[in-house]
Amino acid sequence: MRIAFLGTPAFAVAALDALERAGHALVTVVAQPDRPAGRGQALREPATKAWARARGVPVLQPEKVRDGTLAAALRALAPDALVVAAYGRILGKDLLTLAPHGALNVHGSLLPRWRGAAPIQWAVAEGERETGVTIMQMDEGLDTGDVLLQRALEIGEDDTSETLAPRLAALGGEALVEALRLLEAGALVPVRQDAAQATLARILEKEDGRIAWTRPARRISDRLRGFTPWPGAFTTLEGRTLKVLEARPGADVATPAGEPGEAEVVPGRGLAVACGGGSALLVTRVQLEGRPAQSALDLANGLRRKRFRLGT
What PROSITE patterns does the record tag this protein with? Predict the structure, then answer.
């Protein structure tokens, strides 16, 4: 097939690799514009643009996608289908309907669960044990189109969104190629989503990483895993931000007496922090504002205290 590909970050590159291996003709790669990144705020090109440049595939980076200009450019390339993977923009009807097979989306969840911009992060943060990828026929709604094909994937006990994303991306590439094969053969049966089962994976905000110690330890641990690498998990210690880098539910440690947020040294292991429901979180690695990352025990040794309160 002649494919016009719309995608921006590293997650989308696995789909490009899969399309290339399967012998599809990529007529263009559409990515978001280069953006400032890093401490120096130098312009950085999207991962998909780098992939395309290395192979001589034409790249488009429009600032706007709903003014008709992009639709006209793609229509001139006569693609058989548009493939969208983490492009980061909402497409209008002119784009969704310009190719004979419409627009197919590679989405990082088992729709209708986790519609929206951060499906991988929220699946992990909400403690789910299974997720997957969906190949969807796009419509004008937010991930509301018919499901064409799905593949499930287990979320490991120690998975973070960072470790899970590459596996989902690879699975998405495989599912995409299979869906295109079935589409060409006329063997796909679109399935309407059950809106009553939908959940929203909204865009993450910095404040999502703030730890509420009144939550059970398991919930705090899941959110730490889901929000790694950003926004992470953080609290405060005497007015200074304290990032919690590594922690797990402390089922085998005693819960410190007192209110949620009370922390107590567990010799040789870390800090036990009182959480909601009488549970404890065993914190093993942290980073105090203005300091490098360190073990939780080193933090306590530096404070010369065996017990203190977090969230203050």
Answer: GART
